[in-house]
Amino acid sequence: MVKIFILRFSVFMFAMLFLGFTLSRVSGVKYAFTESAYSDIKNAAEDVDIVYDMPYHGTVLPGNPFWEVRVLRDRMRMRLSANDFERAKVSLSLADARLSISYRLWERGENGESVSVIQKGAGYLEYASTLAKRSGSADRLDLLRQVCLSSLKYREIMEMMLAESSDEGRPTVHKIMNTPKNVYVECSSELEKSGSVAPENPF
Known about the structure:
It is globular and about 45 Å long. The protein has helices at residues 2-27, 67-79, 84-107, 111-134, 140-164, 170-193. The longest helix is centred in the N-terminal third of the chain and has 26 residues, at 2-27. The model is unreliable at 5-27 (pLDDT under 50). The relative contact order is 0.15. The chain is built from six helices and no strands. It is an all-alpha fold.
C-alpha cells in the first residue's frame, strides 16, 4: 500500500512539473532586444536611490534547467497561502525576487530576458497591492507601505532600463513601467485614506 502511494505521488509530482514547464514555455512572453546604443535619453532615476532591500537573486535564473521548477514552486506558494493577507505577502516576495533577478540579467546584458522577468514581477506587485487593499488584517497598512516602496524601487530600476534600452525595446519597457506607477498611486491613496503616510515619491 505504501509503495503504491509513493509511486502515485511520484507520478503526480512528475506530471505537475511537466505541466508547469509546458505552461511556462507556452505562456511566457519573450523579448528579443538588439543591443542598446545608449542614446541620449536621460535616466530619470539617476539621482534617486530608493532604500529598499531586494532579496538575493539566487543561482537559478532563466536559462538554468531548474528555472521552471522554481517558477512552479512559486505558484504553489501562492496557492497554499491561507488568506488574502498571506497571499499578498507571498506575491510581494515574488515581485521583489523577480525585480532582483531582472536587474541581474540586465547587468549581464540579457536585456530581453530581463524585461520578460520584470513584466512578470510587475504583475505580482499589482496582485500584492490588490490583495493587501482588500485584506482585513490589522497589519495591512504596513504591507501596503512595503508595496509602495517596492513600486518605487521598480520605478528606479525601470527608469535606468528605459534610458539604456534600444529604440526597439523602449516602448515595451515604458508600457510595463505603468504598472508600478499605478500601484504606487493606488497604495498611497489607500494609506492616506486610512490616515497613514505613504513613502515619498521622488519621481
